[in-house]
């Protein structure tokens, strides 16, 4: 498989309609220009983003002992984690909706006892109500083209940004993230084995001996995915999240970045150069 063109052709910005690295205001025109100037197959920003999410959402449960399967149409994994880790993610293009629905139905039939099934409809074009699903929420796909990023600068001193390096820190990060997302009693997500997975990095800010904010990144050959961005309630509005995201992006400026911002973080990512490239819908099916 050829490298994604965003990694191999960083010198083409002026020809591709990109004013500067990180500018991605006209995705369709840039993709047309990429094909014209490189002659290489193009991985669209949306598919690059979906692929990063698929690999990440397979790696986390696999480290906990639940491996999954990835086909051209779906990523499936019968784990027991809660959203944001779905059991199913659609992939392979918006025109695959018939195959997506059929394979989701097959997955449900092959796991009849699963109490909860979460589906990320990557293209927001499915109606899963007939299969017993309810819509939980929708979020955008946000994408940032490769480029340098300025680190956070402010008048007051910013606490040091640290990197998780051992199992105790990873457990502390896991529990702090659960509190940050209002899931105090949730099961552990990050297994110790992820510390040996070079695709993962966990950044955090500590205040008064406690982790106050953090972000987790997943870097594959094609992109940097930003996930689990959180700040504990007592430490919000101190720009900790912005500092963490900028620090994370600065580690692989040659790669595009992707995320799914929520209502509290969409403006943050927009200010850093992320552009909305689509919408995904999360569906939940619970046995009663």
Task: Summarize the topology.
Layout: H1 5-8, H2 13-16, H3 27-38, H4 45-63, E1 69-70, E2 74-76, E3 88-90, H5 97-110, E4 116-121, E5 134-144, E6 161-163, H6 167-180, E7 200-207, E8 210-219, E9 224-231, H7 240-249, E10 257-259, H8 266-271, E11 275-286
Parallel strand pairs: 3-4, 9-10
Antiparallel strand pairs: 1-2, 2-3, 4-11, 5-10, 5-11, 6-7, 7-8, 8-9
Concise structural overview:
The protein is of the alpha+beta class. The chain folds into 3 domains: about 5-40, no CATH class; about 45-145 and about 280-285, no CATH class; about 160-255, Aminopeptidase (3-Layer(aba) Sandwich).
Ends distance: 44 Å
Radius of gyration: 19 Å
Largest sheet: 11 strands, mixed
Strand order of the largest sheet: 1-2-3-4-11-5-10-9-8-7-6
- Number of domain modules: 3
The tally of helices reads: 8
Description:
The model is unreliable at 1-25 and 33-42 (pLDDT under 50). Helix content is 29%, strand content 24%. It has helices at 5-8, 13-16, 27-38, 45-63, 97-110, 167-180, 240-249, 266-271; strands at residues 69-70, 74-76, 88-90, 116-121, 134-144, 161-163, 200-207, 210-219, 224-231, 257-259, 275-286. The longest helix has 19 residues, at 45-63. The chain has 3 domains: 5-38, no CATH class; 45-144 and 280-286, no CATH class; 161-255, Aminopeptidase (3-Layer(aba) Sandwich), CATH 3.40.630.30. The chain is of the alpha+beta class and 288 residues long. It has 8 helices and 11 strands.
């Amino acid at each position: 498989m050829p490298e994604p063109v965003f990694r191999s052709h960083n010198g083409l910005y002026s020809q591709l309609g990109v004013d500067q690295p990180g500018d991605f205001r006209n995705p369709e025109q840039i993709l047309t220009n990429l094909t014209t100037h490189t002659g290489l197959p193009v991985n669209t920003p949306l598919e690059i983003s979906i692929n990063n999410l698929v690999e990440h959402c397979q790696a986390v449960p696999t480290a906990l002992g639940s491996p999954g399967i990835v086909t051209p149409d779906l990523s499936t994994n019968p784990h027991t984690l809660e959203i944001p880790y779905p059991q199913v993610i659609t992939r392979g293009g918006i025109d695959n909706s018939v195959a997506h629905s059929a394979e989701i139905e097959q997955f449900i039939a092959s796991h009849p006892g699963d109490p909860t099934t979460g589906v990320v409809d990557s293209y927001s074009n499915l109606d899963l109500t007939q299969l017993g699903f309810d819509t939980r929420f929708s979020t955008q796909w946000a994408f940032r083209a490769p480029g340098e990023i300025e680190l956070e600068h402010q008048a007051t001193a910013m606490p040091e940004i640290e990197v998780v390096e051992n199992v105790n820190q990873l457990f502390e990060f896991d529990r702090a993230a659960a509190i940050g997302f209002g899931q105090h009693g949730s099961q552990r997500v990050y297994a110790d084995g992820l510390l040996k997975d070079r695709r993962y990095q966990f950044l955090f800010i500590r205040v008064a001996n406690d982790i106050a904010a953090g972000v987790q990144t997943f870097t594959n050959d094609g992109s940097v995915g930003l996930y689990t961005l959180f700040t504990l309630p007592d430490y919000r509005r101190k720009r900790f999240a912005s500092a963490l995201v900028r620090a994370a992006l600065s580690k692989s400026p040659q790669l595009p970045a992707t995320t799914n911002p929520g209502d509290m973080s969409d403006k943050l990512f927009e200010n850093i150069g992320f552009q909305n490239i689509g919408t995904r819908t999360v569906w939940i099916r619970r046995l009663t």
